[in-house]
Amino acid sequence: MNVCIVGTGYVGLVSAACFAEMGNNVFCVDVNPHVVETLESGKVHIYEPGLEELVRRNTAEGRLRFTTDLGEGMRDALVVFITVGTPCADDGSCDLSFVDAVAREIGQRMTSPKIVVDKSTVPVGTADRVREIVAGELEKRGEDIHFDVVSNPEFLKEGDAVSDFMKPDRVIVGTGDEESAKVLRDLYSPFARSREKLIVMGVRSAEMTKYAANCMLATKISFINEVANICERVGANVSEVRAGIGSDSRIGYSFIYPGVGYGGSCFPKDVKALIGTAKEYGYDAKLIRSVDEVNNIQKRVLAEKVKAYFEPQGGVEGRTLALWGIAFKANTDDIREASATEVIKDLTSLGMKVKAFDPVANERAREEIGHIEGLEILDSQYDVLEGADALAVVTDWNQFRDPDFEKIKALLKAPIVFDGRNLYVPERMGEAGFAYFSIGRLPIK
Fold first, then answer.
1. What residues act catalytically?
2. What single-letter DSSP state applies at residue 89?
3. What is the DSSP letter of 90?
4. Is residue 407 a contact partner of residue 415, using CB atoms and an 8 Å limit?
5. Which of 179, 209, 184 is nearest to 198 (CA)?
6. Global pTM?
């Protein structure tokens, strides 16, 4: 099948590479010439495990091509995916300006029937909006070309996106057109060989499913963080509580890891967008608002622990914190809405210096937050420790899980660790001579 994908971010590029891997001819469109040149050379501009190999192989074999020209990209394509960004507007709503621009150009340049697929995460009603824009542009041209607009939300986890696409739990297709459903079923059939995974539903239900899924997962994260904060106050251990509730099959263990809150490009934006959609329709989404509020508080918890520890000693001003992990989670270089950024901003504003390291996100961090006064980003996990007053672990990269604790003690001024991901066992940290502070568990002083 000939496929056009507009946008080469996480969703667009992963989708394009995986479709091409299954033998489809895929044309990727991006407005940035530098991005297109980079991709044509077989390199990728984002970090996603396994993606560069797919892009390089399918580009070399001619199934995956790149262009800045939408007309060229969709000329032979039956299916055109919109995978451009939908960032948060200042009021928390979803900014659809990029989606609108693509829809407008599709209407201006299409010359044959198309199935336009919204794969970007968009508010309920966006497919209708895209349909109106495309139809309006066709009318201006005096053209009567058949097209349909379908919702096909993505459910990819950054850091595991290739695997998620190749082996999906489900594929949601929102359409009322049987022919469009058949085309999408054929396109996705190689990814669902073991069982039927494609679920066809109404367009608005498909759009809502994406938001409902992400808000449910965000709710689980905020719930366990709220429980962790209560555990600290009543003397309970959240790790034990998690084991107790996770063993209940109705609850399960996934997404109930206490920590420093969720971040990234999806959960924060989607939670706010659903709150905004509900408000637009006259409903106050109290539970989802609380999820957002709890998360905003949780992002500051680790910094509060650092400040509380040093307050009796004159505060954090003039001290140095070593920080492990800048990305919002492991296996990505994405620092959007990352908790580490909140920790850094909070403590440097009080005069504390922060020396940070991330295995993958250092370069992106230098570009986006390197201007923060008091922040130094180093390229060695252990170099950041030298002369620091304490270590804070913010991202759960594998290489942080079993470090050289004797080396940590030797490099730090004092053996103090603030663990925002509960990577270490408190009793063992105490036996090793550390003052240890984690989430939802009693501190070791």
1. 266
2. P
3. T
4. no
5. 184
6. 0.92
